[in-house]
Specification:
This is Pericentrin/AKAP-450 centrosomal targeting domain-containing protein. By secondary structure, the chain is mostly helical. About 80% of the residues lie in helices and about 0% in strands. The termini are far apart.
């Protein structure tokens, strides 16, 4: 094949073989022989020309406008329905929001009133606690003062009793010593030429032995009294120390309690007010009865020892 044959210019027309434009069943190269008719460039161009004519026809334009108008009307109707539904939803939501706002306002007012009442109750409780603490402090101070006075009075009474007992013993000792001196003087004054020397000698020995035994008993009693006085003094000193120690412990416990109440007050934690089980008068009577019982017991013990 020559170059001129490869690049020769041919004009396409319907007389060309194997063209779909040839419709002839007797021709083996006709397009009717194919199950799927092949389409050529002329077929596409012809279709475009035909479609172009249909596209710009007034009937097609009217039909297309009607379809678009119908679609627009349906769209407008659906939009209107949606808008009405949205308006109803908006009205319902506004009603719900209004009712919720009213409920919130009422709850807020109730909460404010409750907070005000709690603040007033808190102030009342704090005032009552302060009054109770002040009353307890006054009662404790009065009780401590009364205990100190009772203890001092009891110590004074016991000291007077012991002092009187020692004075009696010393007076008795002085009397016995004076009696011993008188006996010795009488012994010296007795004449050696007495008709009853043996009798006087036995009598003097008997009196001397009685005097010695009484002196020994007196000395033993004096020593016992001194030992008892020393023991009682040590016991009183120990009781005074214990009393002072308990007073310090009570003061420390009161300070700890007051600090704890202040911390609870700062933290906003309510605390129960301690209600005394006994009145101050009952406590004072109990302390006074205990002091009287101790005084009577000491008196009985001292009477038995004498």
């Amino acid at each position: 094949m020559s170059v001129s044959a490869d690049f020769s210019s041919d004009i396409f027309n319907k007389d060309l073989p194997q063209s779909s434009l040839i419709i002839d069943r007797s021709n083996s190269r006709s397009g009717a022989k194919f199950h799927n008719v092949p389409r050529t460039l002329f077929d596409e161009i012809g279709r475009e020309f035909n479609d172009h004519d249909d596209l710009f026809s007034w009937k097609a334009l009217v039909r297309r406008l009607r379809e678009e108008n119908a679609s627009l009307l349906s769209t407008i109707q659906s939009t209107r329905d949606e808008l009405s539904q949205l308006l109803n939803d908006k009205t319902r939501l506004e009603d719900i929001v209004t009712s919720q706002e009213d409920t919130i306002h009422s709850l807020q007012n109730q909460l404010d009133s409750i907070m005000i009442e709690r603040e007033q109750q808190k102030q009342q409780v704090e005032a009552a606690a302060a009054a109770v603490m002040t009353g307890n402090d006054e009662i404790d101070q009065y009780q401590l003062k009364k205990k100190e006075e009772d203890t001092e009075q009891l110590d004074g009474v016991l000291h007077q009793q012991e002092h009187a007992r020692l004075n009696n013993l010393f007076e008795r000792k002085a009397q016995l010593i004076e009696q011993q001196r008188d006996n010795e003087k009488e012994k010296d004054n007795i004449s050696p030429l007495s008709p009853f020397p043996t009798y006087h000698t036995e009598q003097r020995q008997r009196e001397r032995s009685e005097h010695n035994s009484s002196t020994d008993r007196l000395l033993v009693a004096v020593h016992e009294a001194q030992d008892g006085y020393a023991i009682e003094r040590e016991r009183r000193i120990e009781l005074v120390f214990q009393k002072r120690y308990l007073m310090l412990v009570n003061k420390s416990l009161e300070s700890c309690e007051s600090q704890t109440l202040e911390y609870l007050k700062e933290l906003g934690i309510p605390h129960n007010i301690r209600q005394p089980s006994l009145s101050p008068t009952s406590k004072w009577r109990a302390c006074f009865n205990a002091v009287i019982a101790v005084y009577r017991l000491r008196k009985l013990i001292s009477g038995e020892n004498e």
